[in-house]
Amino acid sequence: MNDETQWLSPREQRSWRAFIRLNQKLTARLGSELQSNAKLSGPDFAILVALTDEPAGRLRFQELAKAIEFEQSRLSHQIGRMIKRGLVAREECAEDGRGAFVTITAQGRETIEAAAPKHVAAVRRLVLDAVSPEEFDTLGDLAERIIKHLDETAP
């Protein structure tokens, strides 16, 4: 073992493991509910949300990959599956001829609009009902700070 390793203290380890377990459990639970309520996977939902956040309903592949933290190859496979289901379409980029856009379809919009109310209800039931508004604000502040730190830290 490396003697220079700064191991987590029992307090740090408890918090870290609780955070990881929360992430795993919440992701699995929300994914299960999306699947049963809307026949969407977590990645399907993340992509549709990212596209609906854009006024034009489309993003370049690279922008979408960055927005949802997917590697290019994983995103290509996911988009292929979603194209087959009619949720998104691929459009060539007329400006430069090199890139491509992922565009939400009318069916994709209908699907996300039907899924969103049940998803929000699940988020309220599983998370917001367990904490105070102030605690939820603190959670958001901490998450934003860690995300900023990750973005500033080289991989």
Automatic annotation (TrEMBL):
Entry keyword annotation includes DNA-binding: yes
Assigned keywords, A-Z: DNA-binding
SUPFAM superfamilies assigned to the protein according to its UniProt record, in alphabetical order: Winged helix' DNA-binding domain
Pfam family of the protein (one): MarR_2
Ranges where the HTH marR-type domain occurs: 12-148
Annotated GO biological process: response to stress
Keyword Secreted: no
InterPro entries hit by this protein: HTH_MarR-typ (IPR000835), MarR/SlyA-like (IPR039422), WH-like_DNA-bd_sf (IPR036388), WH_DNA-bd_sf (IPR036390)
Gene3D superfamilies reported in the protein's UniProt record: Winged helix-like DNA-binding domain superfamily/Winged helix DNA-binding domain
Name of the protein this chain belongs to: MarR family transcriptional regulator
Organism name: Glycomyces lechevalierae
